[in-house]
Specification:
This protein has eleven helices and twelve strands. By secondary structure, the chain is of the alpha/beta class. It folds into two domains: 108 residues, Aspartate Aminotransferase, domain 1; 255 residues, Aspartate Aminotransferase, domain 2. Helix 4 links the parallel strand 3 and strand 4. Bound molecules: pyridoxal-5'-phosphate.
Length: 379
């Protein structure tokens, strides 16, 4: 996938969209799949009951291949917070133990742990951002025999600085602490393999980097975590649920693997085919190729920022797809608002403007960003 894929999207030529960390645009194919899915529901008399099953299986298989898992390890979750809540419900935390998170972590991966800490008498420790951006070192300094779990992302959502998960995982394994990963800001655009990192749970939504619909995502559970208690007890996750006539012959057994954690109405007839259409693109491109393509763009942006005297994270701390640029004391909100008028769309997180390109961006977008930024920075 060496070329820009803008032709697969409906992005006007005067818009420079560098804000995928906020919301990914839907590829045209995904929109068509969603429209077809809505039409299925428009005419339910021609909809076979079989529609409830094969698309879910395909959707799980596509996501599993992105993280090196098996389909049976995957459940459908409507949000990252749903997946995190499932993990929190099923991980044992004892009084006096600690839960390690990152400073300024996204709230969906904080509130569930605050509740867990309140309910169990555990303590939350927030690993600090260091000047050299070595998050793993900050995290590992907190890990000891008293650590119940670590719940972090692969990158910090505000600026894309990378967390060395292999190092964090080794430290967790050494003391028997669980590891929960929020992959929302990295899966699809950064290689990640569950067999290397060996996490207990991984959550992601698809509406950002996986270019899918809103309210649709996945939860990976390690095989040893697949006999837990789901957040909901829905009919379709039970063994034999494809026999609609027999649904009132209640059964205690769940379907295989992590199926028990699937959200209610997991077969959503519009969102499932949309997620499939988007993930099929990643299957075609490969995550490695996407990461390489984006790394070229963010490197170019980082070089240009440094030339302008602005500050960015050093190369070894940067992810391929996100770059926080600090503006030497200029108000990032005011700059982003001015840039939006010129249809250059970025976000502000903390004290940085954050650019977040995807496969529909090219070098011309990075040039345009800096031309407009220079104009906006002029007094
Ligand atoms: C790191 C991270 N996790 C999760 C989410 C979304 O969480 P939820 O699906 O609970 O709304 C976001 C949204 O910006 C995010 O940046």
């Amino acid at each position: 996938m060496p070329e820009c894929q803008k032709n697969l999207f409906d992005i006007p030529s005067d818009v420079t969209y560098l804000n995928c960390a906020y919301m990914g645009p839907l590829p045209n194919e995904t929109v068509v799949a969603g429209q077809r899915g809505i039409q299925v529901k428009q005419h339910p008399w021609s909809m076979p009951t079989a529609n409830f099953f094969p698309d879910v299986v395909r959707s799980k298989a596509l996501f599993a291949s992105i993280i090196g898992a098996k389909s049976d390890d995957i459940s459908i979750a409507p949000s990252a917070s749903y997946g995190i809540a499932t993990a929190a419900k099923n991980l044992v935390v004892k009084k006096g133990q600690s839960i390690v998170l990152l400073d300024e972590q996204f709230p969906s991966n904080v509130y569930a742990w605050r509740r867990k800490a309140r309910e169990t008498g555990a303590e939350i420790k927030f690993a600090k951002r260091r000047d050299d951006y070595d998050w793993a070192l900050s995290i590992v300094e907190f890990i000891d025999e008293n650590t119940a779990l670590v719940a972090v992302g692969h990158v910090h959502w505000t600026d894309g600085s990378v967390i060395d998960l292999a190092k964090v995982s080794r430290a967790c394994k050494a003391v028997g602490a669980a590891l929960v990963i929020d992959g929302t800001q990295s899966l699809g655009v950064m290689p990640f393999d569950v067999s290397l990192i060996q996490p207990d749970f991984v959550v992601t939504v698809v509406y950002k980097w996986l270019l899918g619909p809103y309210s649709y995502g996945y939860l990976y559970s390690a095989p040893k975590r697949q006999n837990g208690i789901p957040l909901e007890e829905n009919w379709i996750t039970r063994k034999g649920s494809d026999n609609f006539a027999g649904l009132v012959d209640y059964v205690d057994d769940y379907g295989p693997g992590a199926e028990r954690y699937d959200q209610g109405e997991r077969s959503n007839f519009a969102l499932t085919p949309m997620a499939i259409a988007s993930l099929e693109l990643f299957e075609k491109w490969s995550v490695h190729a996407v990461a390489d393509y984006l790394e070229n763009l963010t490197d170019k942006a980082a070089d240009a920022a440094i030339t302008l005297g602005l500050s960015v994270a050093p190369k070894q701390a940067r992810s391929p797809h996100m770059l926080g640029i600090r503006l030497n004391g200029q108000d990032p909100q005011a700059i982003a608002a001015k840039m939006a008028v010129a249809k250059v769309i970025i976000s502000v997180r903390g004290t940085a403007v954050r650019i977040a390109p995807h496969v529909y961006n090219d070098e011309a977008d990075i040039d345009r960003f800096f031309n407009v930024l220079e104009d906006c920075l002029r007094p």
